[in-house]
Write a structure and sequence with these properties.
CATH topology of the largest domain: Rossmann fold
Shape: globular
CATH architecture of the largest domain: 3-Layer(aba) Sandwich
Order of helices and strands: EEEHEEHHHHEHEHEEH
Oligomer: single chain
Structural class: alpha/beta
Strand order of the largest sheet: 5-6-7-3-8-9
Distance between the termini: 48 Å
Largest sheet: 6 strands, mixed
Number of helices: 8
């Protein structure tokens, strides 16, 4: 994998005549995890889809560029909400799905190696229904890593998991996404406080930046400074009385 470039998202978005967000200027540091929080409906998921080039409804006026000046096409992997696995394919088939969709022969030895890194080797021939929620999320993360893209977009990837499994998945993601440029949308202040090298809140009026804790990512769940940032984020995101 080549060095991961930084991203710049600079512009406004609207659906029809209705403004969605902007003017917005968001920098995503290369090789780091940037967490984006905010209330529902402000356009967080839409922003990810715009970066991925998948949104055909929203009108975006501005620029989405990489710091190395190269096109973004072909350099982005998106892990959407939920595991989103094909129920009729086994774990190995789901991890290697990208190549098949592109009409290419899948690199099965590499897929098996990634499954081994994720602790999923013994489940390679199982269908998704036979897996736990945490295991399905690990398969989805393995599929994202299989794409080997320098830029990774995560949209509420662990929101359906219980607290313990979510913390485990946060640790795995932080470990295996090291060196990639990651933009992660989350509603969980604790997740942002644990994983974010940079933390931003998208609101109807603009973008706010919150200083992350100083500890190394992924931060301990009981680290006092991490808990303090989690508290500040929660207070900021709580609806006004």
């Amino acid at each position: 994998m080549c060095a991961a470039p930084a991203l710049l998202i600079d512009g406004t978005a609207r659906i029809g005549t209705t403004p969605l967000f902007g003017p917005l200027r968001l920098g995503v540091a290369g090789g780091r995890i940037t967490c984006l929080l905010g209330p529902s409906g402000v356009g967080k998921t839409t922003l990810l889809r715009l970066v991925a080039g998948l949104d055909e409804v929203t009108r975006f006026e501005g620029r989405i560029t990489a710091s190395d000046g190269l096109p973004l096409a072909g350099r982005i992997a998106l892990m959407a909400q939920g595991a989103d696995l094909l129920p009729w394919r086994d774990v190995l088939g789901n991890v290697a799905l990208g190549a098949r969709l592109r009409g290419q022969p899948p690199d099965l030895p590499r897929a098996r190696a990634i499954l081994d890194r994720m602790g999923l080797s013994e489940h390679a021939r199982k269908r998704p229904h036979a897996l736990s929620g945490g295991q399905r999320q690990r398969v989805a993360l393995a599929r994202t890593l299989m794409e080997d893209r320098p830029i990774v977009l995560l949209d509420e990837p662990f929101s359906a998991l219980d607290a313990g499994t979510r913390a485990q998945m946060q640790d795995l993601a932080a470990e295996h996404l090291t060196g990639r440029t990651v933009l992660m949308v989350t509603h969980d202040p604790g997740e942002a406080a644990r994983m974010g090298h940079a933390i931003h809140i998208l609101t109807a009026t603009g973008l706010e930046t919150v200083a992350p804790p100083p500890a190394k990512v992924p931060r301990a769940v009981d680290d006092p400074q991490t808990l303090a940032v989690q508290g500040r984020l929660l207070a900021r995101l709580r609806p006004a009385a």
